[in-house]
Amino acid sequence: MSHPSTFTTPGVRQFAEEIDAERQRQLAKFGDQHHPDGTGNKSQQEYADHKRRWCEAAFGSGYGTWADILAEEVAEVEAERDPAKLRAELLQVAAVCAAWVADIDSRTTADHVCNSIMARGEMDEPLGYLICGMCGKRKSEAQR
Ligand SMILES: [Mg+2]
Q1: In angstroms, what is the span from residue 73 Cα to ligand 1's centroid?
Q2: Which residue from 79, 71, 76, 87 is spatially nearest to 40, judged by alpha carbons?
C-alpha cells in the first residue's frame, strides 16, 4: 500500500514517526503477531451503544473529554465484525489518538485557564473530585 510522501495535518508526521518507532519496539519484543479479532458480539455492540450515549451526554453537558471520545471509538471497534468496517474503525481510533496527542503537544502549563472535569477511575466510575481538563491538576477548591 502506498502512503503520502507528505502529511497535510499538523502533527501527523511526528505522530506517524513515533508510531513507527513504537511498532519497532513491539516487533522486537513480541515478533509478528496474528490473533483472532474477538469483536462483534452482542454485548460488545450494546456496550458501543452505551459509550456513544455516554459521549453524547458528556459533550451535551459541557464536560466531554478526549477519554470519552476515545472510549466511544474503541467501543465501536469492539462492536464491529466485518473486517473492512473493523479496519475503518481502527483507523478512526488512530486518528483520535493523533488528535489527542496533537492537543497535548499544543498545551503549555502556563497558557490555559483551568476548567473542571470529573475525575474518573476504572469503568468510568466518578472518583468524587474534579480535575482540570487541560493540565490534569486536581482542583481542590472544587472537591465534592
Ligand atoms: Mg468509529
Answers
A1: 5
A2: 79
Helix (H) or strand (E) holding 60: helix 42-60
pTM: 0.74
**Ligand 1 center to 78 CA (angstroms):** 10
Determine the distance separating the centroid of ligand 1 and the alpha carbon of 64, expressed in angstroms. Answer: 17
- Per the listing, cell 482542583 goes with 139
* Residue 141 confidence (pLDDT) above 60: no
Distance 77 CA to ligand 1 centre (A): 7
Instruction: Return the SS3 of 74.
Output: helix
Please report the pLDDT score of residue 1 as a whole number.
Answer: 57
Over the stretch 33-80, which tens digit does the pLDDT of each residue have? 999 999 999 999 999 999 999 999 999 999 999 999 999 999 999 999
Classify 82 as helix, strand or coil: coil
> What is the residue extent of each domain of the chain?
12-29+36-106, 110-144
Q: How far is the CA of 90 from the centre of ligand 1 (A)?
A: 7
Position 5 confidence tier, pLDDT thresholds 50, 70, 90: low
CA of 140 to the centre of ligand 1 (A): 35
